[in-house]
Amino acid sequence: MSDKKSKGQQLQKELSYKKKNYYESADQAEKKAIFDYAKGYMAFLDAAKTEREACDFAVSAAQAKGFTEYKFGDALHAGDKKYFVNRGKSVVVFRVGVKNLEEDGIRLIASHIDAPRIDIKQNPLYEDSGMAFLKTHYYGGIKKYQWTAIPLALHGVIIKKDGTKVEIRVGENVKDPVFYINDLLPHLGQEQMSGHANKIIDGEQLNVLVGGMPYDDEDASEKIKLNVLSALYKAYGVTEEDFLSAELSAVPAFAARDVGFDRALIGAYGHDDRVCAYPALTAVLDNESEHTVLAMLVDKEEIGSEGTTGIQCKVYEDLMEEISLSLGANFRKVRAHSKCLSSDVTAAYDPNFAGVYEKMNSAILSCGTAMCKFTGARGKSGSNDASAEFVGEVRKMFAEEGVIWQTAELGKVDVGGGGTVAKFIAQLNIDTVDLGVPVISMHAPWEVVSKADLYSNYKAFLAFMK
Q1: Fewer CB near the terminus (10 Å): N or C of the chain?
Q2: Are the CB atoms for 368 and 404 separated by under 8 Å?
Q3: pLDDT for 224-269, tens place per residue?
Q4: What is the residue range of 232's domain?
């Protein structure tokens, strides 16, 4: 049988498009690079389960690479390596290039470091029927039933009356206690299970179990609550009133782990969107481009990018303007020539739930980082919808650097959708397109990604900055 391809086969190869599995095209050296890079990412995930912790990690990593803190008014020069911290919950890391800023603009990557979780209310602690609980208010889009009956850790800060900050991180060490949200046993759950999934667990039922032993004093009241307060005071010097000025979150007490016999995948809490934030950070730290490059790791994306640490805050625009002014550039011209990859995750096609996807235009696991020309819902509502010209420009960058990538939409047209920070950056007159890692079980307490897609995201950022 001849190995020679027919004219039709040759033409098909030249004219047709097919997504490529990164693992199939990678040689042994590149596969090793993929797996080695994943180890660093998994360490980041375990260290950074809240936006504050992710910010601290980024600052430490930047300092280790010779970056120094930038404050408004500081003079900047070509070659400077800087980071800017916004209220301890978001961070911008940037390098000043040698190219003319008015003509070349800034190469931006924007990711978010917050993730869905269970936040503790300001007046949370109570006891009932032999147990002590913390009342909660969930953060971001979650399936509430997924957060019951799993081990939880408590992370965050408590600001005492005198202004002292107390950092809390309990449940990650094997010697730590963990916390828990009760669920109903199936023997008594017939009515519960007959309802809509949104009603299986009500928001006010997401109370975190934190104690079960009475304080040893016959005359005291609410002894179980008192015993918890006593333990908190002994460990941290805080009182019940200090909850009023606290930011505490219950997050899954799981470490990042390899998934599958071949270890090709990573299971962890918070892939959305730290699986994009970590490559954005490391790409800027590793990059030595002639361009001015900047990675924004921001907060509050899961609740609409609001507040002083979300991307809608003017501080990020102010920072870019300060960089421009310090380098003698007109900010309007800088914005007009800047380019941005809004790097947020997308949904990976899952054959177990094929009915909600349109497979031809879905991200396939291990086929590389996924570009979403538009996000939004149904009629592209709330979407940036990048221009064909800019998509073509980015496509050319990736081709020149051998980046394995794909395009994607988030589900069928009329099924759902999602949003990112892209539209807010585009409003500054900056060409922007979404690019991110496909995720299985997005917003669950434990999500899954491919190591190949993670590394592809990193390589895409390096190509974009080059």
Answers
A1: N
A2: yes
A3: 999 999 999 999 999 999 999 999 999 999 999 999 999 999 999 9
A4: 117-252
